[in-house]
Design brief:
This is Gfo/Idh/MocA family oxidoreductase. By secondary structure, the protein is an alpha/beta fold. The chain has 2 domains: 111 residues, NAD(P)-binding Rossmann-like Domain (Rossmann fold), CATH 3.40.50.720; 165 residues, 2-Layer Sandwich (Dihydrodipicolinate Reductase, domain 2). It is built from 9 helices and 14 strands. The strands form 2 sheets. Strands 7-8-9-6-10-11-12-14-13 form a 9-stranded mixed beta sheet. Strands 2-1-3-4-5 form a 5-stranded parallel beta sheet, with helices on both faces. Strand 3, helix 4 and strand 4 form a beta-alpha-beta unit. Helix 4 runs parallel beside helix 5, helix 5 packs antiparallel against helix 9 and helix 7 crosses helix 9. It is globular.
């Protein structure tokens, strides 16, 4: 078992602590939280060992799980990596692209692995459909959330939209060509609602909308590709694949058949890939343990996290 320690015992940090404590792949050594009152409360309530300094915790573990505010990701990761520890870093990887690139270099120099917490890669609705997504040419994402003061210290792009940026970059086999975007600050000092249009060199276009001031929650992405449409509902954990195929010689009487202006007929097939229930946060943490033990590539690498952050900052710079 890998010895692991958690930096940060806020809302998400406590979830990580609970899951790591349950995991058969980790031995939870303890945690560090800079807020002394919160640290004592968490330690007394759950029985986790509370370390007084980050350095003391790092000495005792193999893996450091960084669930602190984004502004502190770089310093936490730097100290852990320089001590030869593997790092799991919550998204976004760091506050700036320069910091992210520095973390990548440090990890390589110190021969340690890193993974970024882009948890939607482990959403069962996405994992059920991702093998069906092949060379999409138009993607539409809506990630809408009701207002929550937590997370408003960063623009909605870094808080919410970055999830979809990472998903898109993972399925589009091309480089970004152009980005157009707009954002509006309504309640916070940074944009609370944003829209971005990402154009790729292969012709694919992705249209993303993110809001943290909506009246209802929605996390849905639709992928359009040659002869197929794939819908992934990250919130409801549902996937649907709609395929267009040539009409057989003797179609079923209930078959849905479309005919275009040229007279070409296509039959529509509906498929709902089986979605298996899982805990996406536990999965991302445990697959990272597997990558360390087996010396394989993590599912969401430090490079992946850096690319998503770079696109996010390009979007913000367009506001």
């Amino acid at each position: 078992m890998l010895k692991v320690g958690v930096l940060g015992a806020g809302h998400l940090g406590k979830i990580h602590l609970r899951l790591l404590n349950q995991s058969s792949k980790y031995e939870l050594v303890g945690f560090y939280d800079p807020l002394k009152e919160n640290a004592i409360k968490v330690s007394e309530e759950f029985g986790y060992k509370n370390f007084v300094t980050i350095s003391e915790l790092i000495k005792e573990v193999d893996v450091v799980d960084i669930v602190t505010p984004t502004l502190s990701h770089f310093e936490c990761a730097k100290e852990a990596i320089e001590a030869g520890k593997h790092v799991f870093i919550e998204k976004p990887i760091t506050n700036t692209v320069e910091e992210a690139q520095a973390i990548r270099v440090l990890a390589s120099q110190n021969h340690v692995l890193g993974q970024v917490g882009h948890v939607e890669r482990f959403n069962p609705a996405f994992t059920a459909a991702k093998d069906k997504i092949k060379n999409p040419m138009f993607i539409e994402c809506h990630r809408l959330a009701e207002f929550n003061p937590r997370g408003t210290d960063v623009p909605v792009v870094l808080d919410l939209m970055i999830h979809d940026i990472d998903i898109i970059l993972s399925v589009v086999p091309s480089f970004v060509k152009n980005i157009h975007a707009s954002g509006v600050s309504v309640i916070s000092d940074t944009p609370d609602i944003a829209n971005a249009r990402i154009e790729f060199e292969n012709g694919c276009v992705a249209n993303l909308t993110a809001s943290r001031i909506s009246l209802k929650n929605m996390r849905k992405t639709r992928f359009f590709q040659k002869d197929a449409y794939i819908s992934v509902d990250f919130l409801e954990k549902k996937s649907e694949v709609v395929r267009m195929k040539d009409v057989p010689e003797n179609p079923d009487e209930f078959a849905m058949i479309l005919q275009n202006a040229e007279g070409v007929k296509k039959q529509i097939y509906f498929e709902n890939p089986p979605v298996e229930n899982n805990n996406a946060i536990l999965d991302e943490l445990e697959t990272f343990a597997d990558a360390i033990v087996n010396e394989t590539r993590p599912i969401v690498t430090l490079n992946d996290g850096t690319k998503a952050l770079k696109v996010a900052h390009q979007i913000i710079s367009n506001f």
